[in-house]
Amino acid sequence: MRWKLLFVFYLKQLGKSKLYVGASVLFFVLLLVRFILFFSDDMNSNMEYSGDLPSEVFMLVQIISIFYMVFFYLLYSKELLYGVSSWFADGYRILLEKMSALFAVHTLCQGFMTVMAYGVFSLVYVFIGIEPSDLYLSLLRFLAVYMFGPLVFTVLYGVIIALLFETKKISFFVMLFVWILTGPMMTELFIDVSQTVHARDWASLLFIGKHAIQHAYDSYLGFEVDRGGEWKLATWFLVLIGLALLSSIRWTQTRKERHTVLKALLVFPFLIVLTAYSSLQTNTKTFTRADQTTEINEYRQMSQSTKADLRYGIQSYDISLHGSRAVARVALSHLETTKPTFQLYHLYPIQSIQADHQPVKFTRSGDLVTVFLPKPVSTLTFSYEIVDTAFIPYTNGRIVLLADKAWYPKKRASHMYRLYEYSVAGTRAWRDEFTDQFFPPEKHVFTLSVDGDVLFCNLPKRGAVYRGKAQAVTLIKGQGHQLVYQGYEITYPADWPNMAERAPTVIHQLEKTFHQVQQAASTVVSSLPKFIVFSSWGLSSFMANDHLVYNTNFFSIDTYHLERDYYENMLRLSVPPKGSMIMYNEWILLATRWLMQTNGLPVIDWSSKSELFESQPRSVQKQIESIYDDFQPLGIDQKRQFLRTWYETMDDTWTWDRVLQVMQEVKVVGGHD
């Protein structure tokens, strides 16, 4: 009965407080302002990152949490100052009832605020055209972890500070310190520290917020919410409750009460360790900076001059994916070695490799796996585990296994990921790529058995399995939508708005650009693939015979805001490298400018400003600049003829003098075919 009266009392106190109500209203006022600023920017029209809109809550939670903390401190410290609890024989029990009632009231209010915020975000999503899906449910989970949880904890911060310092002036400095260190924006305020913390480091438990607060949503994987984040909230809750009980010991009136509290506190360390360990074990690497940095550094340290024995042929694959367990049976068409080498992602633990059902030995060097066979065999079976990594995140049962990744054993002589080092103004720089951006022409028969709902697979579904011939296989299990337009099957993320209305523009733009690229050079595929997968961020881009994966990098796919990047991306996806890296890069940049001019884009920079250009000696830079100077005044057809002749005849022996010679030849003949 008394607890209920206290609950009603504190509910009235919160409702009458201008500070508490004002902070709550301020949250939604600031959220409305952020929406107005976002949608008033023309560049944000149809931008493909609606899923990142909820990242606004990190800044808003950081702002209003200080007001809540001050309110609860003032409210509770004044009650302690008057010492009303000491008037009663069960005064310590009253103290605990006040704490729990105040916590319950604040939790109720924040639950109501979270539901209101969810309603606001949902209405915005419906208004801009986000289709119904479980994205809306995961949005609620996101707000519960990163808005509801941190704001609920503010009552515990205020109460603990009141118990420790009562009405002393130092309390306000302590609150400021706690506000900074426990805020969801801590990873941005101390970015140099957060960039070194991995998802499963114990130090990650210090961050309630994300490691990169601007990025809240990954294409097909959803919002950054998993059991790890929820276990982390449980850990924080137990720590704060334990601190509150520990701080309240001085207010106990009997030895029995003191012993009871101390006995209860003995349980907390075990519960805290249990929840913290569970958080680390279930935490994801998807959105963590340090995990990706570590993975890239691992590839930098791998030797690029690897030994591989590829004297074998692959006839077919039979791949089974059930949960995180993968079994890939590789049928060989011929085998001329007893030490065949395969490419398989080095972070996938291999349990065993069998040759004709008999276990065999193997070694790993980066992504290359060498199998030691006692005799020639016809089949090899790889049993391994799909784990969550920075390059191929696997979270909440969702995963994107792209064809350019070594998620199944491939006949390759290099690592899955390659980095090139060069120098710009005396500073080391890196250029990276996945080695399977352009696939070998041969096809294999694939049979893929997978549990759960599959959003996309480039193999046709035949009964309960996916089966067909392909250069490589892409499999997506995650949030997203599909539509069919003029024979194209388009897969796109769940946070993309009005895609059905924009599909005609998108397909026309892709077809037109691809046709224009074919006028400048021979492409790896003869026509635009009928299966197209779009993403906003995180996925690599490539083009195979049967499907295209295109990453917009947050730009709108149906407008020409992309300008140079759009045409450059299409060139790099469809025209394989030739000659030296710098020469191929400059060919791409010149071809990009030709495409921009062909499509009437007014602003074109007729100079090279790429990092590869900057890394060249001054004598080479002058030669490249002269090519740009001669290229600009040429007619459209002359530019096309120059680009086509340059690319078709270019090889590793070419120098810039040879390119200048082609330029002179084109200028002499007038650029006619």
TrEMBL record:
This is ABC transporter permease. Signal peptide: none annotated. The keyword Chaperone does not apply. It comes from the Bacteria. The keyword Membrane applies. The chain crosses the membrane at residues 20-37, 57-76, 101-128, 140-165, 172-191, 233-249, 261-280. Keywords: Membrane, Transmembrane, Transmembrane helix.
